[in-house]
């Protein structure tokens, strides 16, 4: 396969890197006695104790709850609310057990032999990433993938920091294995990827965020589904948190959330061959599927404005619309940096929420048509669950505030009890997959989301037409 070169023409190899360095994606065992970890232990313990106390209070207030329910039943609107709430609960419970059934059916595809692997172009768009982009490119170069079948492209999207310098440093090490490109003006991640798609010549495109590190066998495992399933148009990788060993608490919570989102939810979706979003941090696409929708993708608009966010969800949606299968590879790991502060977290969620609104509306245009061969009921159920979340966001917020003002103690105790019950599944899931002590972050995260991020979806719906990445500017530390 032809490998594009930039103007430098360097040809040194990765062996120049210090062989005593640990792998980019490895993690040392944390010191549980350090202050930062003691703080984490305290937060998890307090979260769990608060939920247990709430459960006890809810138990002691059973007579009050019974009276409240009786009062609601004796009013016409209260009875109607009960019927609607019961129906929604049955749907959500049924959807959960449906996902559980699909999860147990899921099996990742094993990595195929070298001679069966397709030619692959890896595209790394970067903006204000600093030295992290160097680590990203090095981890990709160390992949267990035939060098002659791998094309590495890195595109600096008009960064304001030293990202271009670190790309050049990586080029000095990797030589002709890496081609680097610099866009003088920041046009957005979608445009950087667009340039990569047009420069690439692989049968498969892999996109990797510039703040992510991949495991040695990630690329092999990620592209193997395309070999065994000719209808496969895209594959989602398994995303874990890279910066969860720092003193910040949010990355630790998000790591537990990511495990549930990817290893449970996307495993279930993959059983239906209908993963709804291939993450920007690590995703693979069949090139012919990309080129079939590339013009629509780069020129996508929403409510009259160019779409400059949610490029991963948009690409996935357009590939699904073509009739291709979209799968998830649990054995293809990438570790990515996530926000460490509340402001960065809610901005990331707003961006995701806005693209979710846009793509669910786009999905509604084809999901009930004969858009692909075979069974389509599963993906339609997934879509209905997505739409239901959007439809119910405002009613739930209004009812929540009404409940708070009229029965604050009942609201608080019942809400915390619900968190204890529903969050126990991600706790058990993470404990089974990884580590029990870290799994208790699920309780802390649920408390944060319920009381600190509940407004995200309604706000994203109301501002769905707004543009802007929100989290791509310079940070204090790289």
From TrEMBL:
<keyword id="KW-1003">Cell membrane</keyword>
<dbReference type="InterPro" id="IPR029044">
    <property type="entry name" value="Nucleotide-diphossugar_trans"/>
</dbReference>
<keyword id="KW-0328">Glycosyltransferase</keyword>
<keyword id="KW-1133">Transmembrane helix</keyword>
<dbReference type="GO" id="GO:0030213">
    <property type="term" value="P:hyaluronan biosynthetic process"/>
</dbReference>
<feature type="transmembrane region" description="Helical">
    <location>
        <begin position="442"/>
        <end position="462"/>
    </location>
</feature>
<feature type="transmembrane region" description="Helical">
    <location>
        <begin position="381"/>
        <end position="403"/>
    </location>
</feature>
<dbReference type="GO" id="GO:0050501">
    <property type="term" value="F:hyaluronan synthase activity"/>
</dbReference>
<feature type="transmembrane region" description="Helical">
    <location>
        <begin position="79"/>
        <end position="98"/>
    </location>
</feature>
<feature type="transmembrane region" description="Helical">
    <location>
        <begin position="409"/>
        <end position="430"/>
    </location>
</feature>
<keyword id="KW-0808">Transferase</keyword>
<dbReference type="Pfam" id="PF13641">
    <property type="entry name" value="Glyco_tranf_2_3"/>
</dbReference>
<dbReference type="GO" id="GO:0085029">
    <property type="term" value="P:extracellular matrix assembly"/>
</dbReference>
<keyword id="KW-0812">Transmembrane</keyword>
<keyword id="KW-0472">Membrane</keyword>
<protein>
    <submittedName>
        <fullName>Hyaluronan synthase</fullName>
    </submittedName>
</protein>
<dbReference type="GO" id="GO:0005886">
    <property type="term" value="C:plasma membrane"/>
</dbReference>
<feature type="transmembrane region" description="Helical">
    <location>
        <begin position="41"/>
        <end position="59"/>
    </location>
</feature>
């Amino acid at each position: 396969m032809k490998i594009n070169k930039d103007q430098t023409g360097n040809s040194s190899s990765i062996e120049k890197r210090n062989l005593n360095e640990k792998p980019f994606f490895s993690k040392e065992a944390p010191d549980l006695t350090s202050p930062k970890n003691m703080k984490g232990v305290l937060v998890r313990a307090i979260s769990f104790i608060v939920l247990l106390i709430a459960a006890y209070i809810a138990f002691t207030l059973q007579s009050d709850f019974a009276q409240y329910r009786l009062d609601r039943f004796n009013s016409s609107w209260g009875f109607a609310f009960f019927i609607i709430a019961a129906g929604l609960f049955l749907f959500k419970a049924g959807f959960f057990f449906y996902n559980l059934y699909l999860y147990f059916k899921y099996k990742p595809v094993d990595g195929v032999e070298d001679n069966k692997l397709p030619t692959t172009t890896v595209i790394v768009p970067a903006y204000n990433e600093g030295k992290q982009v160097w680590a990203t490119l090095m981890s990709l170069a160390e992949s267990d993938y035939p060098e002659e079948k791998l094309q590495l492209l890195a595109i600096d999207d008009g960064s304001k920091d030293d990202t271009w310098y670190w790309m050049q440093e990586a080029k000095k090490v990797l030589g002709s294995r890496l081609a680097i490109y610099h866009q003088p003006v920041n046009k957005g991640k979608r445009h950087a990827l667009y340039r990569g798609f047009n420069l690439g010549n692989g049968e498969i495109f892999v996109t990797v965020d510039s703040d992510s590190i991949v495991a040695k066998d990630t690329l092999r495992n990620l592209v193997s589904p395309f070999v065994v399933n000719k209808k496969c148009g895209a594959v989602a990788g398994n995303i874990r948190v890279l910066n969860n060993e720092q003193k910040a608490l949010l990355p630790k919570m998000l790591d537990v959330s990511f495990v549930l989102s990817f290893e449970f939810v996307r495993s279930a979706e993959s059983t239906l061959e209908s993963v709804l979003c291939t993450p920007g941090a690590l995703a693979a696409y069949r090139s012919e599927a990309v080129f079939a929708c590339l013009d629509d993708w780069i020129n996508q608009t929403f409510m009259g404005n160019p779409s400059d966010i949610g490029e991963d969800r948009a690409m996935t949606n357009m590939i699904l619309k073509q009739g291709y299968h979209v799968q998830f590879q649990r054995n293809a790991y990438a570790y990515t940096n996530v926000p460490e502060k509340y402001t960065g977290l809610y901005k990331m969620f707003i961006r995701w929420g806005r693209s979710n609104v846009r793509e669910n509306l786009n999905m509604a245009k084809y999901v009930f048509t004969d858009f692909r061969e075979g069974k389509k009921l599963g993906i339609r159920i997934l879509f209905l669950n997505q739409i239901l979340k959007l439809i119910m966001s405002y009613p739930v917020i209004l009812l929540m505030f009404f409940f708070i003002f009229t029965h604050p103690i009942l609201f608080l105790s019942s809400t915390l009890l619900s968190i204890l019950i529903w969050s126990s599944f991600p706790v058990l899931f993470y404990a089974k997959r990884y580590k029990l002590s870290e799994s208790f972050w699920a309780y802390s995260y649920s408390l944060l989301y319920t009381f600190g991020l509940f407004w995200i979806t309604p706000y994203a719906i109301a501002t769905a037409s707004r543009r802007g990445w929100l989290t791509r500017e310079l940070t204090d530390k790289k």
